[in-house]
Amino acid sequence: MSDVYIVGIDMITFGRYPDRTVPSLAAEAALMALDDSGLSIRDMQALYCGNLGQASGMVGQRMLAEIGQTGIPVTNVANACATGATAFRDAWMAVKAGVYDTVLAVGVEQMGKGLLGGGSGGPSTEGLIGSGTMPAMFSHIGMEHTKRYGTTFEQFARVSVKNHHHSTMNPKSMYRKETPLEMVMNAEMIAYPNTKLMCSVNVDGSAAAVLVSEQKMKQLGLSARAIKVRASEMSSNPFEERQMAMPDFSSATRIAAARAYERAGLGPEDIDLVELHDCFATAEIVHYENLGLCADGEAGRLIDDGDTALGGRVPVNVSGGLLSKGHPLGATGIANIYEVSTHLRGEAGERQVEGARIGLTHVVGGGPGMGTACGIHILEKA
Amino acid sequence: MTAETETPIESGAEPLVPFLKTGDNGPYLAGSKCGACGHVFVGERTVCAKCSARDRMEAVHLSETGKLYDFTVVHRSFPGVDTPFVDAIVDLDDGAHIKGTLLDVDPDPESIAFDMPVKIVYREAEPVNKAGTPYLTYFFVPAG
Ligand SMILES: [Zn+2]
After folding, report:
1. CA separation, residue B40 to residues A133, A247, A263, A273, B97 (Å)
2. End-to-end alpha-carbon separation of chain A, Å?
3. Which structural domain, as residue segments, surrounds residue A304?
4. Which of A113, A131, A194, A370 to mutate to probe the B interface, most B CBs <10 Å?
5. What pLDDT digit, counting tens, does each position of A18-46 carry?
6. Contact with chain A for residue B40, Cβ under 8 A
7. pLDDT beneath 70, residues of chain A
8. What are B99-121's pLDDT values in tens digits?
9. What is the number of domains present in chain A?
10. What is the CATH number of the domain that holds A345?
11. pTM score, two decimals?
12. Does residue A147 lie in a domain region?
């Protein structure tokens, strides 16, 4: 089977675009990715389009109506916060299997402001049987880490200080403001230990990638800036003791990470930078351990020592992460591949991770009573 | 949110969730125990998510005592919901795991202890989107 390469990738600046449509946001990123590759929509043999908010709305077809209807097969996918990664992976599989040699993957989301979670007909259980909000779910995960290892409110808050600092160097980030530790800790408490500045930002956004086979890459002469996909792995939540009471994001991440490292023939020690799913500050801490960036129980020390800051041993979320760059659900899983690819190409400017050769992206999402979807990609400069 | 009254055994209110039942001897939480692997689930089911056994489930009444496994203090919720409240994950003594609201504690993380013993009480309460209509629900309170 052929290796698969990214030859074009880009994202729009994340922000709030209430006057745009979902297909138009998707189209913008698609054209940017095509321009990055030097190819045209007429060269694409298939489209994989990820979007959650209009999952039954044929966003991919409507996007093609804006940039060129060539009759190619369109697959629209929805898979919680792993939606974009799922579209990318479907594209990767199609090329890997040899069905196509030139395909387009797009992720897009247009979101309202405010709390996510809950919702559904019937009487609300909110407040009476705990909380169905996303912040509460992810605060439980942080408190579980506190229970096991003594991780402190301040350590969780440092994640947000770091990622907001990183975002000041990313022109495509929604926010680009420093948030000192006191500001993060004194911000409105949402669900302990996550304050408002420790919750990801609901924004609109889109990202897209052009994937080709090795033969096609050589034939087109696109090797110079190409990124090799060393591993593309997904998982769902395996059975966990407390799954009915608290959603589990760690087991799925550990399964996908183990498969990805095995597929790539690499280990966590080989990774030069990571974009992981920091939907809440508490999540980043547990994913350090889930992705093997440190031993279990060491995540608090990792953030304290600056190992995951730009210039540290393994910089994490140099883009600003979901906490500051923003989290347009369906776009996130391709936007993080854009970030890592940009570093591997040496084109990340002020926030460049020097000498980056191999990077990892991670998304994981789901909800109470639903389940978990996790996607991990390992990328290497071709 | 406070709890002044004891269990309303005679409550005629509709249960807030399907696994809360009103039996002849008062309300109880319905569970299922797998005859193959022993796992105890909240609610009724026929297939085991843990070991995949089919038709080995036995209907049980869940234990009404347990320990506080994990919690968060929720300060921001949906409009109209009283905050702060303590969202708790409890390990029941029969091995089931259940989420709920912990009452009768100071909603301050410093004053809530992991693994503290808790018990289940049944009360009427009005869902935020059904003002004026009480439903029967369950809460956790400190035990002992
Ligand atoms: Zn079983």
Report:
1. 26, 17, 36, 42, 8
2. 17
3. 4-113+201-381
4. A131
5. 999 999 999 999 999 999 999 999 999 99
6. no
7. 113-121
8. 999 999 999 999 999 999 999 99
9. 1
10. 3.40.47.10
11. 0.94
12. no
